[in-house]
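Late entry, evening session. Most of the bench is empty. Finally got around to the prediction I had been postponing all week. Sequence below, unchanged from the version circulated by S.P.
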Amino acid sequence: MYLSSFIHRDDLFDITERWLLGRLEPDDGMRITKILICDGFVLGQTLEAVAAVLLKMAHGQPFQQEHIQFKGQLRDAICQNAQDGNTRTKELIHLYQTNPEFFYREAPINGAICVDQQDHLLALYRVKRPRRIAEKANRYVANWIFQLVQDRAREMAEERAQEHNVPLKELITPPKQMDFEFITAEKDIAGRFKDNNIELDKAALKIHDVGGLKIVAGEDKLSQLEKELSKDPNIRVIGRENFSGSYQATSLIIEVPWDRERVCRSYMDLRAWDRYLERGLPEAELKKGLEPFLEGSKPTLKMELILSTFADMVESELGNSLHEERIIAQRDTKVYRGYIPMNVEFLIEYLFAVGVSPQIHIDRLPIKLWGRYLPDTVIDQIRALYKMPDCELFC
């Protein structure tokens, strides 16, 4: 899990790697807490600043922003002043207004919408929530480990081929034998984690979209915006992907610098420490400002920039490419569903829970990659971080 939207991404990756190998250090809880406070605030402030720059490029008009906590707020804003009068858009908006609860209104989001003076939606930016980061880490690790398991299973097949003195392509393997070799290979990989005999592939585990920004405009304006981006010395486009089919948009991965002086000033001006008082750190320490947390930080961060027409935005929030339906589909179409990637998801979710809980010291890791657990395990462990009482029916 290498979160390129964070400015302490290497430190967080090192902690994550150790946890996946079952190694906990005494100050991990404290370090994670400080990283999530610092990097979360820096990312939010940088998203806001980049949104202002891009909106000026795309629309060149004043805008106002509103922070949102639920997807229903975004979908209400989409419907409030529809910009596009095509039949499909009108149909989707009508469906939403007829039965809004059917459209995952209560799905949480940590972001903001930007609208013009007529309340037309111009942009959306958000920071991915910890639960979604953990799910994505599961998928990335699953793909990586699946390749490792396949490679090991292939080695076992090659060994059998040599024993029988036949080429691998001529080796006939019964399905039960294939299943046995795959399970054995999975256990071998789990053993390597347990023995600290494996190194995570940082390149395969990069997640660029913890910070995300969507600009909504006509196709001409979006095309012009891309040209402007190529000329901007402070914005570097490092990846581009066009989506077609039910979901249509252009996704860019951009790298931008963040303004240390402005961010630190905003932290004080906004009394940002107030929102972190339940994170286990002394109030006096939080009030000293952000500067003490910035040691070892990177000067740039990456985020996803999505360019979308209003019609495609409506389709992605209300239509065939409904965002939550895509999330569910991603969960259902994993290439590899073994216990190792599920344990990764549990452990990453617990890591973030430690960072936002009142506990800054933990004495053990409740999840080991080579073990097997139910979701109840991580739920109970997260409840314990908040000292929530057990909810047993019989004591």
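Two things to note before I forget:
Residues 138 and 236 are 28 Å apart (CA to CA).
DSSP finds 13 helices and nine strands in the chain.
Will write this up properly tomorrow.
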